[in-house]
């Protein structure tokens, strides 16, 4: 059985979504890597706030993930996956800073090699603009399960809309439907 990895990209409205997601999770069965648009100076505060609110281990990049211990990575700057093996995923902060911080497209595009060794799920949630749509499309082409948040639950529907319009998604779910889907697929226990 292959290990599972969940990638999540968010912008405006994202911190509330992240809190809602983790308030529903009882156990992690997959690594979760989150790119939430925010200033780099705020990332450590955000990670510490999540760590004090939930029982999972939250870390920021750079990070090394092994298959033995499931953790949540909050990407700093423009994090990319720099090395992938069957048992390890290395994330680093890229020197190539994109339009957004962190840049969801950079993360998603760097995650394409994960599809060879892992079952990859990638979700694009609330946010303004088009960040993440191109990377989500490439992940879908390489066998990842790709998800966009529905307009019903997205405070800002820009990024999910762009992904849907560009045929980058295999599923469209509200936030609560997405959480149920993650549980059904075995990424989390609720």
From TrEMBL:
Keyword vocabulary terms for this entry: Chemotaxis, Hydrolase
InterPro entries registered for this protein in UniProt: CheB_C, Sig_transdc_resp-reg_Me-estase
Catalytically driven reaction(s): [protein]-L-glutamate 5-O-methyl ester + H2O = L-glutamyl-[protein] + methanol + H(+)
GO biological process: chemotaxis
EC number: 3.1.1.61
EC class (word): hydrolase
Protein name per UniProt: protein-glutamate methylesterase
Organism: Hydrogenimonas thermophila
């Amino acid at each position: 059985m292959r290990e599972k990895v969940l990638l999540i990209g968010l912008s405006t409205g994202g911190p509330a979504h992240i809190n809602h997601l983790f308030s529903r999770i009882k156990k992690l069965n997959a690594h979760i890597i989150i790119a939430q648009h925010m200033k780099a100076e705020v990332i450590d505060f955000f990670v510490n706030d999540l760590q004090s609110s939930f029982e999972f281990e939250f870390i920021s990049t750079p990070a090394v993930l092994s298959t033995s211990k499931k953790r949540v990575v909050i990407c700093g700057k423009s994090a990319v996956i720099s090395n992938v093996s069957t048992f390890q995923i290395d994330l680093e902060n890229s020197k190539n800073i994109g339009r957004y911080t962190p840049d969801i497209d950079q993360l998603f595009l760097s995650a394409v090699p994960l599809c060879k060794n892992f079952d990859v799920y990638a979700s694009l949630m609330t946010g303004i603009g088009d960040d993440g749509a191109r990377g989500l499309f490439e992940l879908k082409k390489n066998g990842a399960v790709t998800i966009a948040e529905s307009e019903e639950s997205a405070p800002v529907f820009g990024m999910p809309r762009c992904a849907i319009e560009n045929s980058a998604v295999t599923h469209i779910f509200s936030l609560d439907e997405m959480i149920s889907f993650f549980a059904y697929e075995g990424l989390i226990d609720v």
